[in-house]
Design a protein that fits this description.
There is one protein chain. With about 90 residues, the protein is an all-alpha fold. The chain has one domain (about 5-85). The chain contains 2 helices and no strands. The chain has helices spanning about 5-40, 50-85. The longest helix has about 40 residues, at about 5-40. The chain is elongated.
Length: about 90
Amino acid sequence: MDLDAIALLAQDALWLALKLSLPVLGAAFVVALLSGLLQALTQLQDAVLGHVPRLLAVAAVLALFGAGLGGELLAYTRALWGHIPEIGR
């Protein structure tokens, strides 16, 4: 396997990492933004008010989309395992 193919596999891995983390990070960002806005409006500056909603949002996203995200990761892993004999040449 030449260097271009290995670079393509690495590029696919980076895109997959971005695609898998985007729903979780997006939910955490939106909830943090709303939580910060709520804290600013009510002048409540408690750390728990910022962390617990984010934790619940991340858990909800993982519960809803975890199977699909895991399926994409499994498909990439299977494809990568299929390339192992070519990498060793």
